[in-house]
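Summary for the lay section of the report: proteins are chains of building blocks that fold into shapes. Here we show the chain for NACHT domain-containing protein and then a coded description of the shape we predicted for it.
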Amino acid sequence: MTRQALVVGINRYPFTEQNLTLASKDAEEIARVLRDYGQFDSVKVLPEICQDGAIKVEEKGLVKGEILQEEISKLFNPANNNYPDTALLFFAGHGLLQTSAQNELKGYLCPSDVEPSGEFAIPFDWLRDELIKSQVRNQIVWLDCCHSGAFTNENFDQAYTTNQNRPEVSRWLVAACRQFQEAVAVEDHGLLTRLLLRGLNPHQDERGDWINSTNLNAFINDERQKDPKLKTFEQRFRSNLLGEAINFWQKLGASESQAPKNVPINWREVSQNALAERQKLTTNPLTTGDGVEHTLDDIYVPLGLVEKVKKEKRPGEVSPEEGSQFYQPEKEYEEVTRTYKNDEFFAQVLKQGQSPKSQGRRLAVTGEPGAGKTTLLQKIAQWVAAETERDVAIWVSLADLQRRNVEEYLLQKWLKDALGAVRVTPEMEDALALLFKSGRVWLLLDGVDEMGSSNPLATVANQISGWVASARVVVTCRQNVWDAGKNALEGFDVYRNLDFDYPEGVGQFIHRWFARHPELGERLLAELAKDGKERIRDTVRNPLRLALLCRAWQIRQGGLPETKAGLYRQFAEALYEWKQEAFPTKSKQRKELNAALGRLALRGMEQSESRFRLREGLVTEVLGETDEPLCKLALDLGWLNLVGVAVENPDERVYAFYHPTFQEYFAALAVDDWGYFLHHVPDNPSLGTYRIFEKQWKEVILLWFGREDVQKEKKEAFIEKLVNFDDGCGSWNYPKVDRGFYEYRAYFLAGAIVPEFKDSRLADEIVSQIFKSCVSYLYSIKAGANAVLVETDSSRAINHLIRILDETSDESTRRSAADNLGKIAGANEGAIAHLSQLLAETSHEYTHSRVADILGEIAVGNEWASARLNQLLADTSPEYSRVADNLVKIAVGNEGAIARLSQLLAETSDDDTRSRVANILGEIAVGNEGAIARLSQLLAETSDDNTRSRVADILGEIAVGNEGVIAQLSQLFNKTSHNDKQVDQLYSSKSPILDQSSQRRVSDLFSKTAKGNKGAIDRLIQLLDENNKLTRATAADILNRIEIGTEGVIDRLIQLIDQNSDELIQRMVADILGRIEAGHEGAIKCLIQLLGETSAESTRRVIANSLGKIAVGNEEAIFRLLQLLDKTSDENTRRIVAYILGKIIVTDEQYCRLVAVLKHNLNKNIYQNKFDLYEQCYQLIWQCAQNLTYPEFYTAYNQKTNNVLQKLWQYLNRPRF
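The coded shape description reads as follows.
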């Protein structure tokens, strides 16, 4: 049985100026009930918007009459005669009653474009005729609008005689009021909608087994009479029932034999119970025991989150020495960061969907081990339960997948556990899939790095498909794993957990932890504040390490360690003492258990899959049976915990260390010799061991270096091998490119090791060399060095950077040193002083602006820095916009800054500068009368719409209650409301020619209404053939904003390319094809063919961009782009193609092929004469080096290029059939 519904809720009526407020909400709720319980194959809503991953009713959307009529006709009389068994129309909006030209009283439905005269309204008798001629057996119409009783008065019976071949029809028509009455709202819904929702609720059992048209009709009328509040309204429902009762769905109490296919499940309750049960099973031993119980909320301190956003490219921002960066792909410009503090992330990103790529639908939380990623995910789950009405949070620990994909895990494991079912029925599976499709699910995927996969990000990307993809997804992942494979989840917005600030955040956590024993907390804070404790202060800004410290201090009240390994050792010792009374142990037992845990941890780390999930067979092989002393002790102490069963054998249990970092710590204890990590066989790497290049071993290596029981000579020998590693892949003697790809990787690992081995004789040299790499000409080297400079010994790095500032006059080097100080120096007084001095001394404009930016980040509250920026603002007018931007960060409420900015508004006539300065005043001048007066003057003077709009917004924020401003804003509103109406009129017109100023707004409006509308999309495609360039540009802009999903539309676009030689049309269509579903073979083939035919570089770039979106992993697309990279002489095309190749290559085989094909471009001649080609090839091969094992890369790099090229060209020129 097929069911289809059209649900319409119209609030906006621009021409009658009688807007509504609840119609869209009524429609949204009706659509939700039909989707959740009605087993409808299709529930289409108008006006629709994609929000939070689901199609919803747009509150301010418009619905034109011709669109509404078309959709009603398609519902009851589809063009293909594929009639559904049941069709339901719900309409909430205005209804109209007018006398016709024949002097008859007629009723109408009102679309958005209805005129005050009634023109464009939809007659009820037209709707009647649509029902009469329809072959749909079950017809339902609910009209919650004024005068809707005129529809039920229409003569249906007389018309039946004109359609003798129609099937037996069951029909239920409901009108909210009589013909001459108005429909009213009661609180948050229209009266009819309110009772329909109440009657359709399956969570009741008063009316019999099934909710159907007969008993629901009786229910809404009875309830209206029984409810004392509703009885007071004069409004009376009108209804017509014809034929047999139409079933909707069953009540919850129905027997299993009668149960409908769509089993009603309270998913909110189910998911919250599952989350609570999970919380019980994963209680952290850190926070419990010894008479102390800390809940998550007791000790939770919000961490800052940092989001990488695209830096706007503006002329003058890039120095001549760095001019090539103008043409870097935008991805490489993602350096400007936005920081969220406290609950800003929840309010702005989760609630409002303010994220640049996915609008809050695809989020990744990254960070180092113990950075609080899982804790934040738990808080997100709590937030979903507390702050949303209907959404459902589902948690999946990715390490538990065990060879299943996400969909299989949800259906086979999560669903069974959550429902407590003996077996999962197909009905349960369908119900879960429907829940996902409703867009209400938040899928929380914890621990991408813990998956048993060589490329976990690509694995996750492939599994977020089908109905699973309808959910909002949040993943957590260790930073190094994310960086190694980030292209696989490029559509995710990335937020990195920041460490706690010191002393504020660290102090707050310690005070919460020791709330019952504040004197212990104060003693710990005093110990941390002592001189010489800088390193440990930095170390415990990590939440897990700080929790370890608090627990150890609570038990032992001892001294503070210097390294991470020392901290974990201290915690291990404290744990034994903490458990001593319940589980007594002697020194010998502890050593034996530590050694055994080390062997087990190492065996687990060596697993190709599920490194952090240890099957019972492995555990008992190393520790003995679970009832034998060693294994039992590990379980009693909490070092190991039961976390589930093996997917291959449900009878075999699975265990895990209570946190992956402790598995890494014990694994480090089990490694006697550094040869375990590195055994280099230069001539045949396949015979060697290269764990130094495997990301899962990095933390183990760092912990190994922090061990006090390892001889210093062994550590020196190991770090020297890293510094002098020879990868055998080319000779490198170019300026600022002095190492091979894996030589850089080894050196950067040495840089990360320095904090754990601070007394290495090579430490200073390593830090110095890393900074030299920070000023490389090549972005890949520079980015890698910048990343490791943040990881290395901060005191050494800060001192070295300050020395660079003092000793060099090279502006590029100074800026790089300043940039890195901004990342690692915090509020370091020496760094601030030297940066302020540089700001005073340099005459280089770009250096001025960069240093101003940095001081804006690290000198918050520093009076000297504020004074210097104020002085610069007065002295250097060409860059005052940037300087002003930084004043907002450090000068809130500063009268001098406010006065200077207000003066700027008076002095400049540049609209962009005015807008920027106004923005800053909005941040720092709340309530300041002088600023308010100046902004009010600007509001009256400016003719720029954007500036006027922004200034009005700012005054609304900083001038609350100011009568003069209120009057001025009211006057502005009156002046601009007519313009909005004009735009609505333009939107309604059929003219394809649009003026420049209206193009964008018309695009905004039309893109919302054209989604899924085949007629509108066909018209837009036709407009691409128009002669008027502005018309074509507008059509292309709209098509780029909406989903182009149907085969017919895609075929039409491909045909347009095939039949048209106009470069502009080809380019626009190629751009639009980049918006369709990835993997469409026809579109990919069309783009590849066009790439081979066109010689226009701009078209080539557009095609490459589109292939980057829809041809990920496609062999022929990769080959053709490689060919273009090699033959094009256009630098911009090269950069784009190289960037796209980096996006679409996903397999190890493809990486190896790319290395072999491109390595011939890494030579001295190309370096000197075609540096851009050298740079792009280097960057691509660098990416390969981050994803291939060293032996794989070595083999690919050292094979003969001619053989590879010959095979490539043979493939490209193979016969076509």
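Put simply, here is one thing we learned. Residues 505-669 form one domain.
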